[in-house]
Amino acid sequence: xxxxxxxxxxxxxxxxxxxxxxxxxxxxTTSGKVALKYHTARFQLVPALRSELHVAxxxxxxxxxxxxxxxxxxxxxxxxxxxxxxxxxxxxxxxQEVQSQVDALESSGVHRLFQxxxxxxxxxxxxMKAALAAAxxxxxxxxxxxxxxxxxxxxxxxxxxxxxxAEELRDAEIELEFLTGPLAGKQDPSGHGAAPCSPSxxxxxxxxxxxxxxxPSKARRPPIRRARLSAGSRSPTRTCSPPPCACATTNAxxxxxxx
Length: 259
Hints:
By secondary structure, the protein is of the alpha/beta class. The chain has two domains: 1-72, no CATH class; 83-208, Resolvase, N-terminal catalytic domain (Rossmann fold). It has six helices and five strands; from the N terminus they run ααβαβαβαββα. The protein has helices at 5-10, 40-43, 99-107, 126-140, 159-172, 211-214; strands at residues 83-91, 112-117, 144-149, 175-178, 185-187. It has a five-stranded mixed sheet, with helices on both faces.
């Protein structure tokens, strides 16, 4: 796994118009020299380095010398996949304390922790977005990434929000782990989650919870069709044929006939 900061930076091309150094080469100055440090816009492309103020150019790149493009080096995938555990903690308001989540997450052996005070009603959560970006970055470098959260409601409360997070984790092949709650342990983001759900039925399933998924569902009875009545009509009732009257056996007219 790539761990040197300058290699992480040089995996991206410099977006600065006055530099435009290709991937695999250090940044350059306007005078055509190797820059003493990488441009901020370039190392900010690496989520793991966004908190840094600057990233210095190493001595192997000979800063201050004449700049020239270097061949792009392809790094082989590590023989043993390393697991990177990223943690996310959240509370909605200032009156709530987040330290208990932080303590539990740190004791679980996480490598990086992202925390914020923000409501789930806010669509854009900066630290949650940064955690997912860092997870994708580590995943692209060949690491096995696990996002660790204290409990499910720290990710979101609404069904649509949970489905969105589940889709992002599934697409990036990122595992999810809850420390507490009914789904404590590692989850499978690729579980059945296409149907709308509630916080009590999340869009992922635990790998151990397979009995309920394989249980055959009960056959549904066909719906009872009711006759649709027009306005003003009376509901149909069973009618019986009236007994024949006396006039039916004679030639006399019935008593209700009008002449």
